[in-house]
Design goal:
GO terms for molecular function: phosphatidylcholine lysophospholipase activity. With 706 residues, the protein is an alpha+beta fold. It contains 13 helices and 41 strands.
Amino acid sequence: MILQAENTVPSLVFIGDPVKIWVDGFEGQYSAEITTFSADGAVEKETDSLDFQEGVAFWTPRTEGIYRIRVGDRELRGMAMNLPPPLNEEALLEQLPRQGQRLLAGDRFTILAMGDSVTATGDYPTMLAMMLRRATGNQQVSVIERAYPGRSNDASVRNFARDTKGVDPNLAVIMYGLNDQGARVPLPAYLEQTEWLVDHLREEFDADVILLDPTPDTGIVLPDRSGQMIEPSKIFRTQTYSAARRDLAQEIGVPVADTFEALWGEGGESLLAVGEGLWPMFPLHYSKPFTSLIENGGKGDTIHPNALGHLALARAVFDRINGFSEPGRLELSGQTRWVDGGVETEILARNLTPENLSGVLRFYPIPQESVAGEEPYEIASGNSARFVFRWPGIEGPEDLLMPGIEQVFRQPGPYVVILDQWRDGNQARGVHVPWSPTLDFPLQRYVTDAGVMEVSLLVGDEERKVFVTIPEEEPVGRIPLQEKIQVGAETTWAVGELAYTRFGGATSMEATVDGNLDEWSDAFWVPVGERIQARWTSGPRDFRERVEDCNLEWSFAAGEEGLYLAFRGTGNTRADQFAVYFDPRSPEELGTAGPYTWVGGSFAKDGKLTVRAGDSSEATSGIQFDYQEERGRLSGEIFVPYEFLNTSAWPESGDLGLSIVWTHRIEGRKPTFLMWAEDGHPWNTRWYGVVRLDPEGSLPYRVRVK
C-alpha cells in the first residue's frame, strides 16, 4: 500500500495548505522522511513526525517544490506552490478584453487548454486555474483539456469541431511548436493555422486567447538513437517559429506568454550548462511528473516538463494575464541583403538596461546547425552596436531554393536565432531579419489556363509583374523564379518558385468497386509518380531507381452517395501506403488553412489492401475498396461515402479540394513520397489540388507561388 493524498487537486497544494494523508491501519506517531526538490536544483531533506488518527494525518509544506514523503517503505509525492501575487485588474482586463470581467465577477470561467504532449502530460492549466481561483476568489474557474501526444497546429485545426463540441471556453491557452518544427511544417502554414484557431475561438465562443511559446528541447546533453551527440542548438530549435508567431500575435492582438523563457531562466555559461540547469524541471518519465532528472544524473524525459516545469509555465501565463513581462537585456533587430558572393545579415543590438553590458552574440541562421558566426560586444546603457554575419551555403540566388535553406527564407522569413552569452548566463531568441530592400514574391494561389500568366513581385512598396509560361502539355511542374533587380545603386535578387498542377476531373457515375477499371475508360486521370512529384518535408527526395518502380495515375467519380477513386500503374506496392485528403469547402476557401478529412490505405505483404478513415471524419463505416495486381501492373477502386467528408454531397460549386500522398517502400531504401498537388508537407490544406465535376473544355491549373 502507498501513501495517498486528498486535496482539491490531487498532489497539488499551495504553501500553508495542509496535505491530508491516509494509510489504512496507521495510528499514532510515525517518523516521516521529507525531501523537497526545488526548481533551482536544491534538495532539502528533513524529518518530521506525522500524527495518524484512524489512518489519517496532516502535513503542511513550507517550501515550494516537489515533495517526497516517505514513511517506512511507503512514499507519497506531490508539489507545493507559492501563493500567486495580487492581481492587477486593469492589466487583466487589457489582456482578457472579452471575458476578463466575467472572471473578476465570480461567474463561471472555463479555460480550454489546447496543445501537444507537453500539455497532455502535465498540469500547467490546472495550476493556472488554482492561481486564478486564489487570486480572484472566483471558485468557478475550471479547465477542459484538449491536448494529445504528437498534436500540431494542423491537427488542432482539422479536429477543431470535435475538440470544442460541448465546450464553451472563456479563455483558450494554446501551445504548439515542438511537433510542428520537428516535422518541418512550413512556417507560413504554422502561422496561418495559428491565426485560424484564434479567429474561430473568437468568432464561435467570443473567447480570449493566450499563445504559449513552445518549451526547450533539453536532450542536448544525451546521445541520440544513433549514439551521436545532439547538436546543442537543438535546445532552442523552435525559436524561429516562436518569433514569427509573436509577430503574428502582435498583428492580431493576442498576448503571448513567455513560457520558453520561464523554463530557460538566466541560462548558463554554455548551452550544455543550460541543459543541465533544466534537469530539476524535467522528469524521469512523462508519466512521473513529481520526479526530477537530478535524481538520475540527467537521464530521463528531456521533452516533457515535470510538475516544477509546468509550474513555471502556469506562472508565465498568470504573469501575462497580470500584465507582467520580464524585460530583456538587448533589443535585437536586423536586415538581410545580397552582397558579392552571398547573403549577409546586419544585426542591431540595443542595450535596454541601466548598466553597461558585455558578452558574445552567436548567430544560428539554419535550424539545428552549428553557429555561423560570433561577435563580442561591449554596449553602454542606452547605446547600440551593429554586427554582421554571412549565411553559410549561399553563393547565388539559386541556393535559396536548396532544401533546408529554402525553408528558412520562406515568407515571412528569414528568421535567425541569436544566442546572447555573457559571463554566467545566456538567452536565446528568434529575430526577424527581413530583406533590405524589400523583395518578395508574395504567397499567392492562382487558378489559370495554360500559357502566359502574370506573377506579382513586390519591390519595396512597388508591385511589379513577372511573366511565366505554364506549358499546356505538362499536368504538373515547377518553375524557379529569379529576378535580378536594380534598386538605386544596389543590385539584388528576388527568388521564388512557382508550382502548377492541372485540375483533376470527376465524372458523374456509379461504379462497381471490384478493382476492374473497364468502366473508367472515359475518365480523367492525374499523375502520381512523376520525378517532380517525389518530395518530402526536407525537399525533393526520390529513391526509386526508375519511375516505373512506382508510377501511378488516379481518377475520380461522383456518385449519389459518395466519391469513387480509382488508381492504376506499375510497380511493386506490397509495402506501400497512401492517403487521400479532402477539402469540400467553397472555392474561395480552397488553398487556405482549415479543416479537412482523409482516408488512408496500406498494402500487406500478401497484397491485401486495407483502407480506413482518418481521425477527423464523423462517419465510421461504409468505405469500400478492392484491388488487382498482375505482372507488375496494379489497379484499384475505393468508394468513400460523402459523410466521411463531413458533407452530404459533392460540393455545390463543382470543385473539391483534394490531395494524394503515396508512400513507396522498398527494403533497404528510404521511402519515396509521391504527391499530387503537395509541396512536401501533406498535413494542411494550403497546397491541395482541385477536382472539378463534369468539366467542359480544358481543365485549368492551380498555381502556387512561394
